[in-house]
Model the fold of this input.
Amino acid sequence: MNFKTTLIIIILLIAIGGAYYLFFRESPDDASTDEKPMIHQVYDVPRDQVEQVEISFADAAYQDLNLVKDTIGDWQLAKPFQADADSEKVSQMLDDILNKRVKQKLEVTELAQYGLDTPSISLSLWTKGGSPTATFLIGKKAINFSVYVKEQSEAHIFLIESSALDDLTKSPTDLRDRSMLKFNTETVSAIQLQQKNSIGCVKQDDIWHVLYPIEAKADAEEIETLLSELRALKVSTFEADGTDANVPARLEKYGLDTPRIRVVINDRDGTYTLSIGSALPAEPGTQEHVYVKVSVHQDAIYTVSEDVYNLLNKSVFDLRDKRVIDFQRTDTIRIEIKQANETTICTKNFDNIWELQTPTGKIKADADAVDDLLFGVDSLEAAAFVEGPNHNFVSYGLAPPSIEVAFTQRGEEKPAVLLIGNYIQDGTVYAKAEQSAQVTRVKRALIDKIALGAAWLRDKQVLNFHIDDAMRLTSTLAGEEPFTCQRLGTNWRLTAPVREDANNREVNAIIYELDDLMVDAFIADKSIPTDAVTGFSQPSVQLTIELRDQKVYTLQVGKTDASGRSYARFQHEPNLIFLLNAERIQKLKTPLEYIRISEQ
Done:
């Protein structure tokens, strides 16, 4: 390379560097991007004060947009058609553009080379008055991830981040509000489901009622859930916006001329209607959708998830209150179960401990069983309603009832009473609240437990003594030699069939198991099986424990039932039969040879 060529290259490099310095290099004073002013500061256009936005595009593939803020501050799409805009998305778009920093100002005479003679995007913003507060023309991209911009009334141009192109390149769908119904869930006073069998519900004094086809208390939770899900319903696709002049044909096309379901909601501010049309064909394994329209934009057709059809396809049974009896379980202090010749009474003492009254005195009740009873009855729902104004309660076994359960609540004189009648072959039972004429059918699982009376509610721990109070233990196992142990101080000693020190660990294990003996279930008095079934005449295990206070308890374990649990009882209460699981029985079956083995 000769000297002349080298000199030419050097001159070119200097020229390129000078051009870059003149046009693109930022001055030392402007080195920090964060120090540069934002567009809204330069042109005094705060986002919150913008009342109207117009965006036009040079590319015909995009539709020009006009957005207007309504009287309550929500954004509306006015062009290319009228629709609700998503105010949050519009505000975000405005934030994105107005918070861009003006990187550099350029004094130019020719706009064409910067793409500003025919800008790709024009953005006009109104804050007040009939004329735009500012109109920004956006041209070509420059280097350093910038784009040329000009405010229409000014001579100079400036550079901002090129992401402005993406911020403003929006379609109507991008900015539309996808909410279907904008009612106020707090002030809804009525809802109608118009279908083959229409249902109307009203809210009076904060209580929901079914108004037709029957008059009944409504299921408030079911209605509130329905309203909540309708309020959250979003558009999947914007199918049509009323461009077709033949509205009847279009409605017929989408199955909206005779909707499958129409829901009408009234709140304090107005009436809202949603109509459900036909379903869209869907590929296997994909989400199914349906055509819908709302009263706000009568000509617009949308699609939403088909879940909305399942949500609204309700029967009057679905919407009516299915609770059988109304009482406050947390305020209940007395439970009385009457059946045949047996009455079970359970009361809460001053220490909030439930006690069961028995012929021999009060015993501790099973707190979990009492809670299950209270919660179960409080949440007991009808599986079906027996319709008709005049009920023959005798035919349902409710006059008199086969079981009567009364719940006395603190501060109330009269208890809330549940009446239980005849069993039905379909696995349900007739039941009703004493003060109600409405007969219902309920599932029998809870009723079967109530029928057990004291057998269900009594404490499942059948012995309760201190381990150090055990003084003598006698064990007789079927097929094994019986033995007796006597406590001497802190140690145990065999007294029969031999006299020698016993294995303290094994004896104490039996004592601990007896002290903590929990039954699986008690057998109700009316269901006591015969000795041939229980096997108590020849028990598989018989354990006798004598305590320091001279109390003696003899546990007898008989045969197993179909579930693998063993019948058991104490000799001093022969009719109090209960079931023990196999694991507990195994822990009680300690043979003599283990008792004689010395501790290691």
